[in-house]
Amino acid sequence: MKHLILLIFIILTITMMSGCEVKETEEPIIEDPIDIIPKENPVKYDLIESSFGFSALTITDRSLITENYDIVNNEIEFLDALMDTETKIIEITHDLNLGSIEVSNMLTAQSKNLSMYSNVFRPDSKQPLTHPTLIDSGIGLIRIIGRNNLTIFSKTGITIKHASFNIDDSSDIIIRNLHFSELWEWDELNLGTYKRNDWDYFEVEKSNGIWFDHLTFDQAYDGIIDVKEYSSNLTLSWSKLNFVPNAFIEDQISYLEMNQSLYPFYKSLRDADISTEDIVKLGSYQKKGFNLGNTTDGIGFESITMTFHHLEVFNLMDRMPRIRKGDAHVYQIIVDNEDLYQLRLNISHPSISMVNQGIITTEQGAVLMENSVYKYVSTPIKNHQDDDPDVKYTGKYEVINSEWIMPNRTFFGSSSDAHTLWVHSGPDSVIPFELRNHPTIPYFYELEDLYYLPETFTKYPTGSQKIDDFNWLYINTNPN
């Protein structure tokens, strides 16, 4: 019986299997990887197609200019382009060394001389004393005088060395995607107070509408941008102030180290057991930043209006910014002075004065700062400039949604908050905030949460660079 049941089960099983159609496993269809891998969203350049600052009130688009467009490959071609007053666009393709001795030698090789170019280039009135590279190169002064609708830029972030620029009686000027370097030397004569050489990368006077964009600045003997009388509508955007040790600084300190008997101030630091490494840092960290209104009780500073936005600033001792009488708008910047803060703890010497200050507002000048970070800036705000207690030397400020980071505390908030840490140093009173030149900020701009700033600077790097498929001459004049 058991065998019969087993036989019946086997027959039924074979019958069922014979009725089934066995299919081979089909391999999945693999689509073209380009079709199935999600493409990264392309970077949108809306953020950098407009100046989004006071300069946006006057700057015009360049993308349709085809005539008076000069592509320059060397120093003399650059000066020739400047000499032509009809030139509207100067595109620089190679690094330029514009020291006065360097340029003079190049001109001589072409049977020319400096006097032929005096309208646009002259030796600086103060020539170098201590840096061996600059003693050989000299310092040049580029003169942009009486110009309108001029652009100087590069597509690849080229470097300009050994020169400062004077912009005077000009309007609608764009300086874009350039790296400025080697305009500093050791200050032996004034014991590190930097009072002899008036070397600023840019000096602006009697001009309206200047856009400085995507620039990288290394150390300067004096300041980065100085703004003088009757100037207005300036913007510095998407730039990197990179005041850290580099080979140029190290070469200077090496030269001093080998010639200590010629440089008593330097020798006094070494005799005090200050290391060469710390002296390199001392030379690297920038003494002065931005001076908007260059003299006490000066005339014509009331009209100054300047915007600073999307900046990365490393180790700036002072003047971010310093203003007399005019208006400054600061937003979406990061000032990181941690290295400077640590050096001040390491070095103690009676001849060394290292400040660590941010906003300096005086003579009724106004600074509005929004959504920014000041890291290890010991004195974030000063609102007075002289010992004279007269209120005319006091300035105005307002800080909104910004962060101040120190080793033992961090504060996020606004200067109007109860128990705010965004307060000025010193005994001078707070002046109610208002802009001098406009009832409110007169241009369109957008603010993002400051905690996303590092991510933004990763996606849209600051400073000079090469950006594929980006038109540096297109200016969105209506970004809103």
Low-confidence stretches: 1-39
The count of β-strands is 24
Portion in helices: 10-25%
From the spread of the alpha carbons, the general shape counts as globular
Query: Which whole number gives the mean pLDDT?
Result: 92
CATH superfamily: Single-stranded right-handed beta-helix, Pectin lyase-like
Proportion of beta-strand residues: 25-35%
CATH class: Mainly Beta
CATH architecture: 3 Solenoid
Largest sheet: 15 strands, mixed
CATH-defined fold name? Pectate Lyase C-like
> How many structural domains does the protein architecture include?
1
Measured between the Cα atoms of the first and last residue, the distance is 93 Å
Instruction: Give the helix tally.
Output: 10
Alpha carbon gyration radius: 30 Å
Draw up the topology in text:
Elements: H1 2-18, H2 33-36, E1 69-72, H3 75-83, E2 89-92, E3 96-97, H4 100-109, E4 121-123, H5 132-137, E5 140-145, E6 148-153, E7 159-161, E8 163-168, E9 171-181, E10 202-205, E11 208-217, E12 225-227, E13 232-242, H6 247-258, H7 264-271, H8 276-284, E14 290-292, E15 305-314, E16 322-324, E17 327-336, H9 338-346, E18 357-362, E19 366-370, E20 373-375, E21 379-382, E22 396-400, E23 402-406, E24 409-413, H10 453-459
Parallel strand pairs: 1-2, 2-6, 3-7, 5-8, 6-9, 7-9, 8-10, 9-11, 10-12, 11-13, 12-14, 13-15, 14-16, 15-17, 16-18, 17-19, 17-20, 18-21, 19-22, 20-23
Antiparallel strand pairs: 4-5, 23-24
Helix pairs in contact: 6-8
Structure description:
The chain has ten helices and 24 strands. The protein has helices at residues 2-18, 33-36, 75-83, 100-109, 132-137, 247-258, 264-271, 276-284, 338-346, 453-459, and strands at 69-72, 89-92, 96-97, 121-123, 140-145, 148-153, 159-161, 163-168, 171-181, 202-205, 208-217, 225-227, 232-242, 290-292, 305-314, 322-324, 327-336, 357-362, 366-370, 373-375, 379-382, 396-400, 402-406, 409-413. The chain has a 15-stranded mixed β-sheet that branches. Strands 4-5-8-10-12-14-16-18-21 form a nine-stranded mixed β-sheet. Helix 6 crosses helix 8 (276-284). The N and C termini lie far apart (93 Å).
